């Protein structure tokens, strides 16, 4: 799909059952020390959300998308920046329930990596391209656009690129990469699927 066609590929989040425990099916490292990670949970301190899929949990989290997290969130839930950076893409015109496109925000960090915040609600983007954000700043509102399996959630994944992850031209060098988060329970191998994580 060409960038000009920006009907944005739905990110790979085919859903498993919320009650089904899914173990990682492949090596998912390496991870850095979780307690000094530059990343924080993508929601405000004092809130807690359920991780439905995590690194290498199969379904939509394999191959290109093997690293990343799906946080179950009601449509309209506030999403915040996981790390300081500059907004590279911000698209919000897709209607909730539309599986042909995904509303999303991408933020480029100082080291060149890009965080993808996907499946946002229509008009739920709270930032503009070129805007600088700090960790914890509002970036959007969660939704049900793209390949969510009909389960509203936020997909969060990290990529070593400045292109929009998932579009033609990004190439294999933009596959998702492993990361963990410092403002929650110990997660030396990343967050675990099928449990809640509180931001503190």
CATH class: Mainly Beta
Order of helices and strands: EEEEEEEEEE
| Beta strands, count | 10
The end-to-end distance, rounded to whole angstroms, is 39 Å
Task: Give the low-confidence spans.
Answer: 1-10, 15-26
Q: What is the mean predicted local confidence, pLDDT?
A: 85
Number of helices: 0
Level-2 CATH architecture: Distorted Sandwich
The percent of residues in helical segments reads under 10%
CATH superfamily: Glucose Permease (Domain IIA)
Principal-axis shape: globular
What can you tell me about this protein's structure?
- With 200 residues, the chain is mainly β.
- The chain has one domain (14-200): Glucose Permease (Domain IIA), CATH 2.70.70.
- The protein is 0% helix and 28% strand.
- The protein has no helices and 10 strands.
- It has strands at 48-53, 69-72, 78-80, 85-91, 103-108, 114-125, 132-133, 138-142, 153-159, 195-198.
- The protein is globular.
- The termini are far apart.
